[in-house]
Amino acid sequence: MWRQHRYKILLSLLLLAGGLLLAINAGDAKPQIELDALDILGEGTTLLVACGWLGLIISSRPAGRVTEWLYYGSLLLVFSYFLDLLDEFIRYPEHVRLMSWLESLPAPVGMLVLTYGLVGWHREQRAINRQLRGRELFLRDHQLIDPLTQLYGMDYLRAVLQREIELHKSQHKALSLLVLDIDNFAGFNRRFGMAAGDAYLSRVSELLSNQLRHSDVVCRYAGDRFIALLPNTALPQAQIMAQHLRQQLRQQLCAPDGAHDQPQLTVANIAVQQDSADSALQAADAALALAKQTAALNLQHV
């Protein structure tokens, strides 16, 4: 997760460095006799705890709106507590009120922003828990989960796709499919080994589950191919989702010996207009093949 948040880490360091320079220029160091060890310990501990929150968010959360709220709320708290700690070492002239404002204002604002982010996090967890409960109830009677990726398999995909086709057709709503294929995955397995290939598939499945909506159904379609069923989604919206997915997978996936050896991913999408699941899947395969041909032609002209 650190890789996708490197700009946030840089921003945090620059903000703290700016606060330190501003404090040094605005005041003078206190003599050692005026330092209060108890205050320094208390305020230093508070700062370390806030830094711990910030580190946990950066190291465990994927990029997204909720992560942004959690990050900026925590960063404001860290900045406020950092200036509060500096106040124990630096004395500011009475007419300089800027440092007092910078020390006091970010903390309540940061608490509000962080609280809003926690509400979003709570909503995310409720959606995930609903999906997990539904999956658990379904699995009590049906063994339809792929053991490696923990995604639904081909049998479940056909059943749900047929149901959604009939449902969306009767309600005159849009339905789309998004298909992802790992190019030359057999070569990747030969080079890095089956264990690395299995780990890569698990990472792809996890990222698909995180990046798509909780209402979407993500399935492992074949050994190196995944399909997402997108209910109530028209083709233009599906195309936007496919482009976002390409960017996120490109940023977050990396092969064992560097990004240069990362397998290429092909993503295609279609609007489902067929009357059966089999014909819709055939159309998805054709769209994927066309996307691969287009990508190959683009490479030849580069």
UniProtKB/TrEMBL annotation:
Keywords: Membrane, Transmembrane, Transmembrane helix. InterPro entries: Diguanylate_Cyclase, GGDEF_dom, Nucleotide_cyclase, Rev_trsase/Diguanyl_cyclase. The chain crosses the membrane at residues 39-57, 69-86, 98-121. CDD domains: GGDEF. Signal peptide: none annotated. This is diguanylate cyclase. Coiled coil: none annotated. The keyword Transmembrane applies. NCBIfam families: GGDEF (TIGR00254). It is an enzyme of class 2 (transferase).
